[in-house]
Amino acid sequence: MAGEKIVTTNPKAFHDYFILETYEAGMVLLGTEVKALREGRAQLRDSFARVGKSEMTLHNCHISPYGHGNRANHDPKRPRKLLLHQREILRLMGKTQQRGLTLIPLKIYFKNGRAKVELALARGKKEHDKREVLKARAAKREIEKAFKGNV
């Protein structure tokens, strides 16, 4: 998309979860966090979002300390507040109380100069689901290879 710079993605998200819906949320960040994000120094591995008291927070998202920061540098793993409309937060609160549904971040990016996170409402995959996806992908690859050989 135009005006969008992807900082980091969550590569294991599509492997470990069925993605049901996606949402875009703003992030409340400190100055050194924004500078570290612009350098691409973030990880989403094992991170998740939680709804509580009509606000949403992002947990376990690691944003490395800014290299040129001073003693006022940020804590890399601190919970960060996410900005969504109140009706979206209430809707997600109801959805995440259902058994097996969770909120995971898919990517962090800058859109029009503002840091955003793409959240997904997801259901965890079982081991046999992961194997089925791998088998289907391999079968699709074989079919495409066969068609390329015939043409």
Descriptive keywords:
single chain, 151 residues, alpha+beta, two-stranded antiparallel ribbon, 38% strand
Give the gist of this structure:
It contains 4 helices and 9 strands; from the N terminus they run βαβαβββββαββα. The protein is of the alpha+beta class and 151 residues long. The chain is globular.
Placed side by side, the strands forming the largest sheet appear as 1-8-9-2-7-5-4
Number of DSSP helices? 4
Poorly predicted runs of 5 or more residues: none
The biggest beta sheet reads:
7 strands, antiparallel
Describe the overall structure.
- With 151 residues, this protein is of the alpha+beta class.
- The chain has a single domain, classed as Small protein B (Small Protein B, Chain: A, Beta Barrel), CATH 2.40.280.
- 31% of the residues lie in helices and 38% in strands.
- Strands 1-8-9-2-7-5-4 form a seven-stranded antiparallel beta sheet.
- A hairpin with a 2-residue loop joins strand 8 (101-111) and strand 9 (114-124).
- The two termini are 34 Å apart.
